[in-house]
């Protein structure tokens, strides 16, 4: 059984009865509800992504791209290879004529300092943008949760009204049943007298 099926089974077991109301849910309905919630979340996230892209400036998108590449294994691999080639190129004795940065690699240290000096603020800009996006998403999550809570309260109120109506109907039916029994008893008494 794959992970998705295990999730559906767990959701069905947890949601097979709506707590407090003893309303049975079939596995099909539980899966349908789960699928609808997933589709709704994907729809909202795609809208947030579109809005994020539309409201982004070129410099913001550039900062995101640099931060994305600078925090990847590809960057680490390419940068490690470049450093290795740089040091090997400048230390091999048969390439002495083409050495451009003899050990202790002062030019390499200068390049690394420049890279760190520029890469750090760019990554911070990207993190600030991501933080603003996360804040926006959390506001959306709050709104969705608030709306869901309101809908749950509405459903609960509706179920309480149905329950109260049913209790009223049962009481009324019981009263009418007692009246019918009394009427039948009086009819039987009259028939016995005659």
Characteristics:
transmembrane; single chain; mainly alpha; transmembrane helix; membrane
- Helix residue percentage: over 70%
Query: What proportion strand?
Result: under 5%
Counted beta strands: 2
SSE series: HEEHHHH
Counted by DSSP, the helix tally is 5
N- and C-termini, Cα separation: 77 Å
Give a short account of the largest sheet: 2 strands, antiparallel
Helical/strand content category: mainly alpha
Radius of gyration: 36 Å
Strand order of the largest sheet: 1-2
The stretches of 5 or more residues where confidence is low (pLDDT under 50) are 15-21
The total domain count is 2
Protein name: DUF1003 domain-containing protein
Pfam family, one: DUF1003
Coiled coil: 145-190
Keywords: Coiled coil, Membrane, Transmembrane, Transmembrane helix
Outline:
The protein is 82% helix and 2% strand.
Structure, explained:
The protein is mainly α. The protein is built from 5 helices and 2 strands, in the order H-E-E-H-H-H-H. It has a two-stranded antiparallel sheet. Strand 1 and strand 2 form a beta hairpin.
SSE layout and pairings?
Elements (H helix, E strand, L loop, with lengths): L2 H13 L1 E2 L4 E2 L2 H28 L3 H13 L2 H17 L16 H88 L1
Antiparallel strand pairs: 1-2
Keywords: Coiled coil, Membrane, Transmembrane, Transmembrane helix
InterPro entries: DUF1003
Pfam families: DUF1003
């Amino acid at each position: 059984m794959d992970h998705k099926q295990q999730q559906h089974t767990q959701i069905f077991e947890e949601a097979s009865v709506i707590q407090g109301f003893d309303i049975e849910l079939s596995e099909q309905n539980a899966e349908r509800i789960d699928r609808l919630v997933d589709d709704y979340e994907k729809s909202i996230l795609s809208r947030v992504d579109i809005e994020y892209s539309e409201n982004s400036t070129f410099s913001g998108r550039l900062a995101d791209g640099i931060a994305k590449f600078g925090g990847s294994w590809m960057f680490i691999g390419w940068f490690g290879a470049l450093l290795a080639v740089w040091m090997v190129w400048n230390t091999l004795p048969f390439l002495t004529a083409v050495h451009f940065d003899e050990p202790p690699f002062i030019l390499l240290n200068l390049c690394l300092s420049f890279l760190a000096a520029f890469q750090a603020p760019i990554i911070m800009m990207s993190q600030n943008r991501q933080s603003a996006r996360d804040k926006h998403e959390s506001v959306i999550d709050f709104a969705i949760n608030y709306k869901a809570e309101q809908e749950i309260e509405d459903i609960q109120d509706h179920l309480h009204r149905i329950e109260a109506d049913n209790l009223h109907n049962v009481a009324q039916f019981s009263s009418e049943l007692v009246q019918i029994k009394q009427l039948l008893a009086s009819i039987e008494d009259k028939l016995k007298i005659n």
